[in-house]
Amino acid sequence: MKRTIASLLTLLLLPFMAGAQKKSYAFNENGISRQVLENYLDKAITMVYLLTPDKPEGNRPYPYHADDIRMVKNTGAKFIGRAIYRWGGESMLNKPAFWDTARAIIHELHAYDPDIIFQGCLFEIVTTDVNQVSVPAWVFQAYGLPVTSRNFNYNAMLNRQGKLVDHWRKGSSVPDITEQETQLWFYFLACSYINMGCEAFHLGQVELIGMNDPGRDAWEKITGKIRDYAKAHARRHWVLLDAHVPGGGMLKDGKSLLDFNSFPLRIKEIPEKPCKGKLQVNYLDGIYNKSKGGISPSGWPCEHLPYLVEFDNFGRSDKPNVADTTSHFVWGWDEISWLSLQPEAYRNSWLQYAHNWIKRTDPNGHLEMPGSRMITCPNTSQGSYRANTRSLACPIGYSQEETIKTLFH
After folding, report:
1. Domain ranges of the chain
2. Does an H or E element contain 385, and which?
3. What value does the mean pLDDT of the chain take?
4. What backbone torsions phi and psi does residue 5 show, to the nearest 5 degrees?
5. How far apart are CA 216 and CA 297, in angstroms?
6. Which end of the chain has fewer CB atoms at under 10 Å, N or C?
7. Secondary-structure class of domain 34-263+290-316+392-408 per CATH
8. What pLDDT shows up at residue 60?
9. Helices (H), 257-343
């Protein structure tokens, strides 16, 4: 009789026991399962500059590493997006502090939670500053090239027909992925970040970088070489690749070159409700219900690849605080700047709304929480939005931390 009662109790408690089981974050050189991947995407947060020194660009102050580390631990974040971030300023890589700071923070957080993934960025920008960075011998060797003593060559990374040259400003261009020098540069960055402990890479606006690569041949080559290096040197012998995909994916012969897709949120203004915004399928070029499937890099087929949507930063329009539903700007601001301008209660409720709307509208989608990102609107927070709970340790926090923690759990 006792065994029968115990068995009944076990059956009754099974649903609760299953819900209480820890989610898996395990993967290896053979790839990552869709469930484990989505477990990570469910706990993704953007943390720009988390791994960079206190003054990563010029004299921009960044004194909040300790509180950022505390917030990562408190929220239970598992995927730290854009953790090592650099927009131009390539000679920063010559400074030991750039690498030492990153290693120390990665080591501390991995000691706390070894499952955490840090994402590095391989962006759609290269500047003349890259001419100051030397090409290591191992980069030449990986490409079967003679080892020579030279620095990277900015001009050799540019499109030969002049496409997107000086696109950002004079001496600041979009590199062409079909140029070997660009591939050497991306390979150097990715492998160097892998050596520090990064296990993911955001490839930026791949259509811009792939301006001369309609068949994805060059992209297939560089992503393949990065994955080969990861199999030998990464912490768990696999890396996750994503990029902004305006066409819904990055496929080559039915196979995705990316582990997951990503895109901006594309927030639509509600003109009759000043400063308010919402999400909507088919608004502008939003990715909702449009993430392309195929065979994932890990080998599993899917109709729609999982994806992240994030609060993008891209500046301001010439009409701030004016609704224009034909523009990517939200009430005249980029997405993260728009969020930062809202009252605290609305910021928190909007995160809850967006999280729930995405889950209900397209289960393939996941909201990347805004932890830290640059803003371009008038502010007293040193040009950045920070989700940290406002305190003496972070007096410029916007206090979305506890909402993010709730949504993660």
Report:
1. 34-263+290-316+392-408
2. strand 384-386
3. 93
4. -65, -40
5. 15
6. N
7. alpha beta
8. 55
9. 335-341
- Is pLDDT of 7 > 90? no
**Would you state the structure tokens that stand for residue 259, as one six-digit string?**
């582990």
* CB contact at 8 A, 289 and 283: no
* CB-facing half-sphere around the CA of 202: CA atoms within 13 A: 30
Half-sphere exposure (Cβ direction) of 359: Cα atoms closer than 13 Å: 11
Q: Residue 193: exposed, middle, or buried by beta-carbon count in 10 A (0-12, 13-18, 19+)?
A: buried
Max intra-chain CA distance, the chain: 83
In 46-200, alpha helices (H): 65-75, 96-112, 137-142, 180-196
- Cβ(212)–Cβ(132) below 8 Å: no
Terminal CA-CA length for the chain: 38
Beta strands in 166-228 (DSSP E): 172-173, 200-205
Among residues 309, 197, 294, the alpha carbon closest in space to that of 242 is found at 309
CA distance 31 to 381: 40
Q: Are 119 and 186 in contact (CB under 8 A)?
A: no
Cα(384)–Cα(92) distance, integer angstroms = 21
Q: Which residues contact 175 (CB under 8 A, 6 or more apart)?
A: 124, 125, 126, 157, 158, 182, 185, 209
C-beta atoms surrounding 367 within 10 Å? 25
Whether residue 1 has pLDDT greater than 90: no
> Residue 304 in contact with residue 314, Cβ under 8 Å?
no
Q: How far apart are CA 5 and CA 2, in angstroms?
A: 5
pLDDT single digits (tens) 133-179:
999 999 999 999 999 999 999 999 999 999 999 999 999 999 999 99
